[in-house]
């Protein structure tokens, strides 16, 4: 049994029924802590800086954050399978195909998100060090980044039980601090704000599309949500797991992204930290900065935890804790490069828009597979990697999944619009960014059509794979409530 305060030794192996405890509602705090976020302020400010009015920005925030529903739905596969999301995805892509996908989604993109959040925390920490009289230098920057990364990796090493316990306290602490910040921001808001040049027609559509991609990109990056639900009892309600996961992320994301938009009506949010510190009393600035760092630790603790499991899922013969350190090292290197080379806000916007080219289609494939299989996943079968196993498919590759991911990614690439790359279809419509609906819609449609045509998903066979009377069998109806299992 995994316990808080002890390093988690379990890797991707299946969680037995005897070790499954808890209720879905604990997922609310787990997902709230990383989303009471400084980055939400930055994203909300970006919506105003692109020329949107406050009502338009609020509409984008409400709509874009609805994508957290996908994160919640995918989380429901965790209790069903009892293993990590990076193993469950073998059902989508095949044993061999999954390894190729995870190198991109589980390693490179995870490392990029580590760098993004560590950059936000490091910018705040470096600024605080300067206020305390420490001379600015690349050496100081490196020390701050490495300290924040080290604390984060410690959380990931201690793992699931510690995350659940710690994030409950962090969600309360961070919410209190950020509500105080919100109070000071509201006192400086220009409630009569209107863009100097209101957007119309194609320019308005382009700003709305870009904003939707920015806001929705965070939710689409969390296809690892089964990792934080796999210790829950198998009998947990799918609706409860999905609902508490989505709600825990949605509420703080909506609130604090909206606060960022409000702040941009009167403050120069090109430098969010400096702008917010102007309206905060001097004594509260260190509290705010420490909270920014704690938020980054919470966010990246989850990411590093799941990325370590992805390393194992690819087949690297390494224990979970060393795997976490490998991913953490890569993320730290990317953070150092980002801090010393790039402008923070530009880096945030460009990355969030570009990653949806991969994360959007990947999320769509995961949700579509869960619907087609009726959330009947079996951890023991998913962990079998031998040739001819249940998820070997043809040559170890489930071609419908790979084809859906590639075509969805191509569709998204044609519609994305950033300062780094603008797709030809986006260009033809004046820079309108439709990468999220185009990529996800294409991937879902291709996956559904090809699995039906090739008959690679036999839902009746999946239902009875564990035999009559098993927890996943058609003859065993899932309980409407989640009943904790005692060890």
Describe this structure in words.
By secondary structure, this protein is mainly α. It has one domain: Hydantoin permease (Orthogonal Bundle), CATH 1.10.4160. Helices cover 67% and strands 0% of the residues. It contains 21 helices and no strands. The protein has helices at residues 26-35, 38-49, 54-64, 68-75, 77-81, 85-88, 90-93, 95-131, 138-158, 160-186, 201-220, 238-263, 272-279, 285-314, 320-341, 344-373, 379-382, 399-415, 424-428, 435-454, 459-463. Helix 1 crosses helix 10 (160-186), helix 8 packs antiparallel against helix 14 and helix 11 (201-220) crosses helix 16 (344-373). The radius of gyration is 22 Å and the shape is globular. Mean pLDDT is 86; it is low at 462-481 and 483-487.
Task: Lay out the secondary structure.
Layout: H1 26-35, H2 38-49, H3 54-64, H4 68-75, H5 77-81, H6 85-88, H7 90-93, H8 95-131, H9 138-158, H10 160-186, H11 201-220, H12 238-263, H13 272-279, H14 285-314, H15 320-341, H16 344-373, H17 379-382, H18 399-415, H19 424-428, H20 435-454, H21 459-463
Helix pairs in contact: 1-10, 1-12, 2-11, 2-12, 3-11, 3-12, 4-12, 4-16, 8-9, 8-14, 8-15, 8-16, 9-14, 9-15, 10-12, 10-14, 11-16, 14-15, 16-18, 16-20, 18-20
């Amino acid at each position: 049994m995994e316990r808080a305060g002890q390093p988690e030794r379990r890797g991707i192996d299946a969680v037995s029924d005897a070790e499954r405890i808890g209720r879905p509602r604990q997922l609310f705090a787990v997902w709230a802590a990383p989303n009471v976020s400084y980055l939400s302020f930055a994203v909300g400010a970006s919506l105003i800086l692109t020329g949107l009015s406050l009502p338009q920005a609020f509409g984008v925030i409400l709509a874009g954050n609805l994508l957290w529903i996908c994160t919640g739905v995918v989380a429901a596969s965790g209790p069903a399978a009892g293993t990590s999301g990076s193993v469950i995805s073998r059902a989508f892509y095949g044993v061999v195909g999954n390894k190729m996908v995870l190198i991109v989604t589980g390693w490179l993109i995870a490392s990029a998100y580590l760098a993004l959040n560590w950059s936000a925390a490091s910018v705040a920490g470096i600024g605080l060090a300067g206020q305390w009289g420490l001379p600015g230098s690349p050496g100081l920057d490196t020390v701050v980044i490495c300290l924040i990364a080290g604390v984060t990796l410690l959380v990931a090493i201690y793992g699931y039980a510690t995350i659940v316990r710690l994030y409950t306290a962090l969600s309360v602490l961070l919410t209190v601090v950020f509500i105080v910040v919100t109070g000071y921001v509201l006192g400086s808001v220009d409630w009569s704000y209107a863009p100097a040049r209101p957007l119309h027609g194609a320019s308005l559509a382009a700003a709305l599309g870009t904003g939707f991609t920015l806001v929705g990109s965070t939710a689409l990056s969390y296809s690892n949500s089964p990792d934080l639900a796999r210790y829950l009892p198998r009998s947990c309600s799918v609706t409860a797991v999905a609902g508490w996961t989505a709600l825990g992320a949605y509420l703080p994301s909506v609130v604090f992204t909206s606060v960022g938009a409000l702040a941009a009506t009167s403050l120069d949010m090109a430098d969010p930290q400096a702008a917010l510190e102007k309206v905060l009393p001097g004594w509260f600035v260190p509290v705010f900065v420490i909270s920014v760092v704690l938020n980054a630790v919470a966010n990246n603790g989850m990411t590093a935890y799941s990325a370590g499991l992805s390393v194992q899922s690819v087949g690297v013969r390494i224990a979970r804790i060393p795997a976490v350190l490998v991913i953490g090292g890569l993320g730290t290197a990317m953070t150092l490069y980002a801090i010393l080379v790039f402008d923070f806000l530009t880096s945030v916007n460009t990355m969030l828009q570009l990653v949806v080219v991969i994360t959007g289609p990947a999320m769509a494939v995961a949700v579509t597979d869960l619907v087609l299989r009726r959330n009947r996943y079996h951890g023991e079968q998913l962990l079998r990697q031998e040739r001819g196993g249940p998820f070997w498919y043809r040559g170890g590759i489930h071609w419908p999944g790979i084809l859906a991911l590639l075509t969805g990614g191509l569709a998204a690439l044609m519609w994305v619009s950033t300062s780094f790359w603008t797709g030809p279809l986006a260009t033809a419509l004046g820079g309108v960014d439709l990468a999220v609906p185009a990529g996800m819609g294409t991937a879902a449609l291709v996956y559904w059509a090809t699995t039906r045509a090739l008959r690679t998903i036999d839902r009746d066979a999946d239902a009875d794979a564990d035999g009559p009377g098993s927890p996943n069998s058609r003859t065993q109806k899932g309980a409407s409530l989640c009943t904790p299992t005692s060890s």
